[in-house]
């Protein structure tokens, strides 16, 4: 079911551009995210999806256009201040600290916070959401399976208390059964009130879970609509779902 949108988006991009030197990777993207939605960004490799996520997280800066979060411009805001404002990124490849324990990894997510009692309460919530993570607390994170590492990365991001969670290819390299579990966790996080923007190669699964979705091609948004609309769009099916319309 498409989400009922409140009047103003939590995140808004208008004409957003990102360049790597002379190479324009994102070429004038308009994108809206409304509170409580799960929105997918799908497209081929090199379409500009990861670059867009990194620009929202602040690890890359816009070379043109505008970006607002909660109604305020964040185009010049550094990444750590965006994290404090509630924007958390789970990067492609998970980016966990392989030599630290699972518990140490999780607590790294709360490094900008000082509210110790609330942090402990949030740790308990993460354990409820991710029971496998709780079982592995004292294990060195580098020894976990790929799926377990992905759950640790999501748990770590949740410890920053995000309002907006950015997920880059959370299913990459994982077995189908684990992928289903990861998506169930993402859906639960969204139902708990966190807005989610998801970049995902598994377009079928992503669109099935999404309120809305955007298709990105060559640094531009080419199609947008509800998850179900895109799931049944012949062009999308042929290009991204491996089916001939």
In short:
The protein is an alpha/beta fold and 245 residues long. It contains ten helices and ten strands.
Task: Annotate the secondary structure layout.
Elements: E1 11-20, E2 23-33, E3 38-42, H1 49-57, E4 64-69, E5 72-73, H2 79-85, E6 87-90, H3 102-108, H4 116-129, H5 131-135, H6 146-158, E7 164-168, H7 176-191, E8 195-199, H8 203-209, E9 212-217, E10 220-226, H9 227-231, H10 234-240
Parallel strand pairs: 3-8, 3-9, 6-7, 7-8
Antiparallel strand pairs: 1-2, 1-4, 4-5, 9-10
Helix pairs in contact: 3-6
Describe the protein.
Helix 3 packs parallel to helix 6. It is globular, with a radius of gyration of 17 Å. It has a six-stranded mixed β-sheet with strand order 6-7-8-3-9-10, sandwiched between helices. It has a domain of 134 residues: P-loop containing nucleotide triphosphate hydrolases (Rossmann fold), CATH 3.40.50. 37% of the residues lie in helices and 25% in strands. The N terminus is likely disordered. With 245 residues, it is an alpha/beta fold.
CATH class of one domain: Alpha Beta
Q: Which strand order does the major sheet show?
A: 6-7-8-3-9-10
Largest sheet: 6 strands, mixed
**Which architecture of one domain does the CATH hierarchy give at level 2?**
3-Layer(aba) Sandwich
CATH level-four homologous superfamily name of one domain: P-loop containing nucleotide triphosphate hydrolases
Rg (CA only): 17 Å
Fraction of helical residues: 25-40%
Low-pLDDT sequence parts:
1-5
């Amino acid at each position: 079911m498409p989400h009922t949108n409140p009047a103003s988006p939590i995140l808004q991009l208008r004409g957003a551009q990102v360049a790597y030197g002379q190479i324009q990777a994102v070429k004038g993207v308009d994108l809206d995210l409304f509170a409580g939605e799960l929105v997918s960004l799908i497209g081929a490799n090199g379409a500009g999806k990861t670059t867009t996520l990194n620009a929202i997280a602040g690890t890359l800066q816009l070379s043109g256009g505008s970006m607002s979060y909660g109604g305020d411009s964040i185009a010049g805001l550094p990444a750590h201040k965006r994290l404090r404002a509630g924007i958390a990124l789970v990067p492609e490849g998970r980016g966990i600290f392989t030599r630290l324990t699972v518990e140490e990894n999780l607590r790294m997510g709360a490094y900008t916070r000082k509210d110790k009692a609330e942090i402990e309460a949030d740790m308990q919530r993460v354990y409820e959401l991710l029971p496998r993570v709780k079982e592995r607390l004292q294990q060195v994170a580098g020894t976990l399976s790929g799926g377990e590492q992905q759950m640790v990365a999501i748990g770590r991001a949740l410890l920053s208390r995000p309002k907006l969670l950015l997920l880059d290819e959370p299913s990459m390299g994982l077995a189908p059964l684990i992928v289903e579990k990861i998506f169930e966790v993402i859906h639960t996080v969204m139902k708990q009130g966190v807005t989610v923007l998801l970049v995902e190669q598994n377009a079928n699964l992503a669109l099935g879970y999404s309120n809305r979705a955007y298709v990105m091609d060559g640094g531009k948004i080419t199609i947008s609509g509800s998850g179900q609309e895109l799931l049944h769009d012949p062009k999308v099916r042929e290009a991204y779902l491996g089916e001939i319309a």
